[in-house]
Amino acid sequence: MPRDQTVTGIVGALFVAFAASLVIGFAILAFTLGEGAAHPIATTGGVLLAIFLALAGLIVHRLARPLDRLSLDVGIVARENLGHRFALGTRHWLEKLTQGLDAMRARLTSAEARGAQALAEAQNQGAEQKRWLEAILLDLTEGIVVCNLQHQVLLYNQAAAELLGGAQNFGLGRSLFPSLAREPVLHALERQMQRLESGWAAPGARFMCGVAGGLVGARLGIVFDAKGAPNGYVMSFAELSEEETALAKRDDLLELATEELRAPIANLRAAAETLSQNPDLPDTQRAAFQKVVLDESMALSNRLEALARGYRELGGARWMMAEIHSSDLIASLIRRLTGTPLQLTPTGLPDWLYGDSLSLLILLELLLRQLHSATGCEAFDIAVSRSENRVYLDLVWQGEPIPAGGLESWLNRPLIGGLGPLTGRGVLRRHGSDAWSQLAGAGMARLRIPLASAQAGGPKERPLRPQRPEFYDFDLLVHPVPTGRFADRPLKQLTYVAFDLETTGLRPADGDQVVAIAGVRIVNGRILTTETFERLVNPGQPIPEASIRFHGITDEMVRDTPPFAVVLPAFHLFAADAVLVAHNAAFDITFLHRAAEGALRFDQPVVDTLLLSAHLYPAETDHSLDAIAARLGLDVVQRHSALRDSLLTAAILLRLLDRCEERGITRLGQLTAASDMAAQLRAHQHELERHAAGSAS
Amino acid sequence: MSQVVSASILVVDDEPNIVLSLEFLLKQAGFRVRTVANGEAALVAITQEPPDLVLLDVMIPGRDGYAVCQEIRNNPAWRNMRIIMLTAKGGDIQREKGLSLGADEYVTKPFSTRELVERVRRMLDRRG
Question: Which CATH code is given to the segment(s) A322-453?
Fold first, then answer.
């Protein structure tokens, strides 16, 4: 049957043929039987034909045409649209068939949906596994490279690229060997294959392997395809660890201790024995032996100093320690204390320290519980501060310091929490640390634990920020004398909010906009580390590349964030009842006022740390945030620059307030007066410089 | 010089071999010297007759040197008493702990006896 032939066509043709043969049949019959029979035959034939045509029409309309329609529809359902409805109307005899087809369609539909869902789930799972793998690879400090058996790189992580000396000869699809020595890898691969054949699938031992920069420690494992045949290998490698370096140094020290001390001790002992066994030595000989005793004692003292120094330098490398951010540690501690009556308020400047997180947590919890039962206090501050290469964790409470003997007995109890027989003293020893309790200002006491700073290696690299132009809008800067609650209380007892903005540029008057705002509260001279405000803001305009370089906030990051007008009321609430503090405050205040548009009032006093610094240190020329921080030995490690600068501004303010107190500036009115003076001086000075530059050009 | 001659020193250490030398040298320098070997005895001796200066070893039996130091500083009547901690604990953190708890100086062993006596003399001179 040709493709485009329809049931209607075929049935119609059959009917026409049958009708025609009927007519011809009757005509032949009439002709054969003669004229007498012609009339009844014609009548009968005509009736029969009429009945036949009526039946044929019925069949065509109720059966053939609907069948054709249905076959078209089924074609559409099958090929194009599973949801396509059968347009047969109601006058047909195919009810059962269409019902059957509908049922079939329903099954198909649900099967398809299940299939799509399964596919989506599989894709999701695949994507999730990929994300996991990426996260794992990124997180590993070990370098990871996956290669096929032709040694082409199929996958690698950042650490691998760094360890193998940059990206010049290294990349996907390229050979591993320009970057890594061939021999050790081939040897390890061969050994691993041998192990496989002998049925031993354990990961291979560590081996040394040459790279451009020197040696790395590596490990190799075989990768299999779906049928279980080897089709590649994965290598992990790491720099020869600090522990290995430290071990070597400790060996040197031990050698020094055992060998280099032998000789002077021998000399000393020989001389001392001679002196005591021969009481009648002549004076000249006695003097010679006494000189030996003296000289060797001195030599031993010096040797010992060298040993102790070396030992101290090795101290940090002894244990499995990691860089810990104090905020993470304190957050965990607070979680551990939920359900107890203890209230912990984090204060100070968050910092990186070096330690073992779990044992520190358990120690701090033990100390807090003991402090609670010894003093009855329930509210404690946990203050973080840094001095040189040390980060202090201080538990601060209202009351008296704990006697050293009492503290010692707390520290000598075994800790609970899966650390075996370790005591608090043991944890401190592991950290090369100690603990003590002392006064911390009037009526306050602290328990101090010094830990190694994870930044002891020196300040880390940070992009230099462009200097913001200093603002001298005197409407903003010259303050009315503070009144009411701000006027009467000592400066350190006021509540402040130190805040900072990141913007699209440095010229608010030319349409630059805010992209981030952050702030932190300072209460009673404590930076409340967790009472912070931090929001990204959609500036409603592209962020210029130049400013992204400094604050790291991209268009992508602010695409779904609210505009400043929406964020501002929340900040207004956060800063209510507090003195505002900012560095080069007029810059930030300008943005605040412009966005507030009179709907909100930021009418609290403002302290500018730049002007305050200029007033207190007139001899210094650089009063940028970083310069002041460097002078005061302050630094903050924080992911987002606005919050970092807020914290830094807060810390600088507290230090400057100490200086103010020494100078007799104890009330806000005195402070703003001093700042205003500094502002006018600096504005005047800038004016002079501009004049000088103008007349010179 | 007369006040220096009459100044009194309490040596708190449980190692007789170092006490021997310290007692001899300090007496030779003109100080009045008493010696005790543990923390409790130190506090008793201080209560009986407050010395002008305490040479205090950290690692002593009973209450340790830190505890004795803190105890002395807790008593306002003994505010002018000088405290030099002598210790085999050479770490920076131990030094900081000692000074934080109120010691005036922190000297690690071994030390030069001549320098130590000199330091004691200077400290008591400064006290005036």
Answer: 3.30.565.10
Tokens matching residue A241: 């660890």
Would you state the structure tokens that stand for residue A634, as one six-digit string? 């302050």
Measured CA to CA in angstroms, residue A141 lies from A49, A456, A572, A656 at distances of: 95, 20, 43, 41
Distances (CA, A) of A651 to A55, A128, A277, A441, A499: 102, 42, 67, 18, 12
pLDDT in tens, A518-567: 999 998 888 988 888 999 999 999 999 888 887 888 899 999 999 998 99
Contacts of A45 (CB under 8 A, 6+ apart): A22, A23, A26, A30
Give the three-state DSSP class for A144: strand
Spell out the domain ranges in chain B.
2-127
Q: Which residues of A377-403 are buried (b: 16+ CB within 10 A; e: fewer)?
A: beebbbbbbbeebbbbbbbbbeeebbb
Contact status, residue A170 vs residue A156, Cβ threshold 8 Å: yes
A299: nearest CA in chain B? B110
- The answer regarding whether domain A140-240 maps to CATH 2.70.150.10 reads no
CATH, range A244-318: 1.10.287
Q: Which of A301, A405, A450 sits opposite B96 (nearest CB)?
A: A450
C-alpha distance from A217 to closest chain B C-alpha (Å): 34
Beta-bridged to residue B9, according to DSSP, are: B33, B53
Nearest to B123 by CA among B108, B109, B107, B110: B107
Output the DSSP codes for A439-460: E-STTEEEEEEEEEETTTT-PP
Architecture in CATH of A476-696: 2-Layer Sandwich (3.30)
- How buried is residue A694: exposed, middle or buried, by Cβ count under 10 Å (0-12/13-18/19+)? exposed
CA trace torsion A95, A101, A107, A109 (10° rounding): -110
Interface pTM, i.e. ipTM: 0.83
Q: What are the tokens at A35? A: 């004229």
- Distances A23 to A17, A19, A42, A297 between C-alpha atoms, Å: 10, 6, 9, 145
Rounded to whole angstroms, how far apart are CA atoms B11 and B85?
A: 10
Smallest Cβ–Cβ distance between A405 and the set B63, B92, B93 belongs to: B63
Task: For residue A403, give how far its alpha carbon lies from the nearest alpha carbon of chain B (Å).
Answer: 7
**Chain segment A456-474, per-residue pLDDT in tens:** 443 444 444 455 555 544 4
As a whole number of angstroms, the distance between CA A130 and CA B86 comes to: 61
Q: How far apart are CA B126 and CA B128, in angstroms?
A: 5
Cβ pair A355, A449 in contact under 8 A: no
Q: Which residues of A touch B59 (CB under 8 A)?
A: none
**C-beta neighbour count of A228 within 10 angstroms:** 7
Q: In a 3-state reduction of DSSP, which class is residue A538?
A: strand
> CA-nearest residue of chain B to A431?
B93
Q: Are A316 and A497 in contact (CB under 8 A)?
A: no
pLDDT one-digit tens code per residue, A321-355: 667 788 888 888 898 898 999 999 999 988 888 88
Q: Which helix (H) or strand (E) holds A143?
A: strand A143-148
- Residue B104: CB partners within 8 Å, gap ≥ 6? B82, B83, B84, B123
Q: What is the DSSP string of B90-119?
A: --HHHHHHHHHTT-SEEEESS--HHHHHHH
CATH architecture of the domain formed by B2-127: 3-Layer(aba) Sandwich (3.40)
Nearest by CB to B93, which of A308, A405, A450?
Answer: A450
